[in-house]
Predict the structure of Nicotinamide riboside kinase 1.
Amino acid sequence: MKTLVVGVGGVTNGGKSTLSNSLHQQIPNSCLIAQDAYFKDDSVVPVDSNGFKQYDMLDALHMDTMMSEVDSWRRDPEVFLRRRGLNPERTTPPKDEEVYVLIVEGFLIFNHRPLNDLFYKRYLMEIPYDVCKRRRSSRVYTPPDPPGYFDGHVWPMYLKNRQEMESSVSGIVFLDGLKPKEELLADVYEDVCQEIERLMCD
């Protein structure tokens, strides 16, 4: 059994969840872990001097719990799939050559070094400020975004986190989130499949 861990990161509302879910549906024996599932309770998320909740930072997330889930998959992907109600697919290669794929999706996955170190492939979704703001304003969050939250916290923190990421992380494939989602999926799917084939041949 061989494993491959893929990271799909990027700005809020950039299309990373759509891409990750589509990849998961296309790739046999894959599993998806989303960083958004590990936010701490709103009552413990710190507030800045402007009164904005500091959600766009690693301290707002239960990263230890998320890493435990990732480590559980790494120990035995087959058992992990079954635990989630997914049945591993038997493919043509012998069992010891089968490749299990973990797709990790989130806005700060490349900023957490223990997690980033696990990725074989890293993809980052990008969209312009105006598109991001428009998409963000059309979605409903719990709790809802207060007035000025995007410009006062979300976008500045994205730029700060991205600068930190780019200064310490290499090997990222940048994706244009304005491209048709089918085209993005085709490009990333082909790239991941090439890596799967390489692992099978090793």
About this structure: Strands lie at 2-10, 30-34, 99-105, 121-126, 172-176. The two ends are 12 Å apart (CA to CA). The chain has a mean pLDDT of 93.
